[in-house]
Amino acid sequence: MRGIWRRGVDVAAFGLGFMLVRVALPVPLYRVFDYRLAPGQVAVVGARVRVPFGRRALVGVVVALPEPGAAYAAREDLRVVSDVLDAVPLLSAALLRLLQWTADYYHYPFGEVIATALPGLLRGGAPALFPPVVFFQLTAAGLGADLAALRRAPRQQAVLQVLQQVPGGLAADDARLLALGNWRGAMQGLVQRGWVVRERRERTQDTSATRQDASATSATLPVLNADQAQAVATVQGQAGHRVYVLEGVTGSGKTEVYLSLMAATLAQERQCLVLVPEIALTPQLLARFRARLPVAMTVLHSGLSEKVRLQGWLAARSGQARVIIGTRSAVFVPWAQPGLIVVDEEHDASLKQHEGLRYHARDLAVLRGYREDVPVVLGSATPSLESLANVAKGAYQCVRLPRRAGGARLPSVRVVDMRRQWHDEGLSVSVLDAISAHLEAGGQVLLFLNRRGFAPALVCEGCGWSAQCPQCDAHLTWHQRAGLLCCHHCGTRSAPVRVCPGCQGRLRPRGEGTQRIEAALARHFPDAPLVRIDRDSTQGREAFEQVFAAIHAQQYRILIGTQMLAKGHDFPGVSLAVILGVDQGLFSTDFRAQERLAQVITQVAGRAGRAERPGEVLIQTFHPEHPFLRTLLQSGYAVVSQDLLEQRRLAGLPPFAAFALIRAEARDSALGEQFLAAVRAYLLPDAQGVAVLGPVPAPMQRRAGWFRAHLLLHAPSRSVLQRLLRARVCEFDALPLARQVRWSVDIDPVDMG
DNA sequence: AGCACGCCGACT
DNA sequence: GTCGGCGTGCTC
């Protein structure tokens, strides 16, 4: 045997042509595949390989090097690796183990888990190198050129000036160029003068995604108040892995605590990974970090171009990016020097992926922190019941910031009883009066309603008919601005119906969406500039940024919006927050509805009165006596969440039990349930301790033309549940009807719909 | 998932 | 007589 062995058994090299690699491929199959290496090929665990698979070629990742041993004789038929794409592991052994665990826990094919963890370009086989970039460099003539000669071409002058400061040349995506705005025309002019040459260059390090802010040349450490200092000391007092729940009321300065912990981590030459629930939260967090930490940072989320995403991913992997800010998929990003994981807004349901590999980024962050022995900080003003239960168990440690920073007071919260007063288009007199008082006092007013459109239904006055989605079991939402009926479940849009098709009666919008509230407010307060912020009004990220800048500049006095408005943003000028549409949350059948309602009320309420001005919060409801609302208002989230936890414990619901939801959908109404009946029959003989409930039609049975059904598995613990599912989910495909339905397994489902 | 093979209806 | 429907079988 003439194999080359480096790093123990991690390297397979040609010897007598019998080296094997075990490859995970991006196919929905619960297994891996063995291949032979051709003479001369070398592959390491974690490297990508291109292999023949059936009639096609696929890119997979080497996950093990099986010993040929005595079994080799039987394996001469193995196919041969076509290409080894990485000379060094693209994915470390530690990351592969995390991905393997993810595949096992969420019952998803390993190869597909790996594929979701890789940037698209790497998945497709692109080299793991920073993409070449266009460089601009001065010629000798350009170096000696006189700036004054360009007096009549100020843009060229500006570009030349920048280039003369950087003799090595500048990349087209360099911050110093981007800062000039529209520089391309001017650069072209300089190229034509013969002062600049344009060339493509390979690069070994990222020059854009990880760019560090030139202004933050030294760490400006935050000045912490006593609570913050205590929080930081608690986390720093213990080495290695621990999970901390940083429970900080809105305005208490959680970000300052993150910054402090990050600065200490960076000082130890380690990297920081910060996860946020939404893309929209990354720019402001990045800006705050950049202003304070003088290190290269990168952002990773699905809104980036493939090239930029690859750069960021590689920068994290190489250690060039010292801070990585990302949405949930960033939990899988490789890093060279693990240091600290922060999960911001850890209660947010967006951290759970709701299709494909249905992982929870917070839960995986905790596991990853454990595996890599780094602290994990879960931050929220309204921690999830899961995290609070872990605190109660002693598994996580709670660190509190109970006061607003800067001495700001918490807002006063009042319930407005809708039954006792006149209201207009969903706005009560009390609310209208309060808005007018706050506007007069110079404050901004924020109204929250988690429903887009003008009205959630269009109903006939005569016979009660209402416009229904042809694809879903749902009302169409009336969008007055666009003049369209829209389905919020499948995206169908249709021209409005003018009269009732049954009785020719008049149609009326029923209920309120943000557009209707906007229209009513515009009528009541014609002089107050108003802005609506929801998915319909604020498309694209720059639109979002611009609107927020305008709000900060007090260009708007009234803000009306959906959760887009409620998540994590600071509005220092807002003195009144009004929360509308809480009632459906009070009586929802979803066992998480009250937790979510408590979180959203607390989060929106936190938007009011952040500075010296005391804020006011109004909650409009037809059920002011509801015990949940009373407790929330009298005692706050901390008490309500403990109440809800106790209810969950008594009812045997998560986090005191483990759920898995098996979903199936088909074009034919009965197939999904029939398939799930087969799943049930398959599981039942070994389901001791696990309640198999259903199959039942999903709460909204038809959606986008698919009939949906569920099977709910309810176990006293995750391990009991996993014991049943292990080695069984991978057999579901062999059950009758499996090929005629779309099925999926959702472990720890967040959305039970 | 792809991509083949294989056996029954309406078309040049 | 073929083109083509999607059932089912396999992928190292």
Would you write up a description of this structure?
The chain has 753 residues and is an alpha/beta fold. 30% of the residues lie in helices and 23% in strands. The strands form 9 sheets. It has a 7-stranded parallel β-sheet with strand order 13-14-12-15-16-11-17, sandwiched between helices. Strands 18-30-29-21-28-27 form a 6-stranded parallel β-sheet, with helices on both faces. Strand 32 and strand 33 form a beta hairpin. The longest helix has 15 residues, at 637-651. The model is unreliable at 1-9 (pLDDT under 50). It binds a DNA duplex (12 and 12 nucleotides) through residues 20, 22-23, 25-29, 31-36, 51-56, 75, 77-79, 112, 739-740.
Nearest-integer average pLDDT = 91
- Roughly how many Å apart are the termini? 58 Å
| Order of strands in the sheet with most strands | 13-14-12-15-16-11-17
Shape: globular
Strand element count: 34
Over the alpha carbons, how many angstroms does the gyration radius reach? 29 Å
Strand content: 15-25%
Specify the biggest β-sheet: 7 strands, parallel
Regions with little confidence, pLDDT below 50 for 5+ residues: 1-9
Structural class determined from secondary elements: alpha/beta
Roughly how much helix do the residues carry, as a percent range? 25-40%
Please work out how many helical segments DSSP would assign.
Answer: 23
Short description:
This protein is α/β, with parallel strands linked by helices and 753 residues long.
Tag the structure with descriptive keywords.
alpha/beta; six-stranded parallel sheet; 23 helices; disordered N terminus
